[in-house]
Amino acid sequence: MPSPITLGTDLAALISRLRNSIRLKIRNNPVVQCKIGVEDMEDEKVAENAKVVLDFLKEKIKHPARIKSVYVKLTMGPPVEVP
Question: Taking the complete model, does pTM exceed 0.90, yes or no?
Answer without folding.
Answer: no
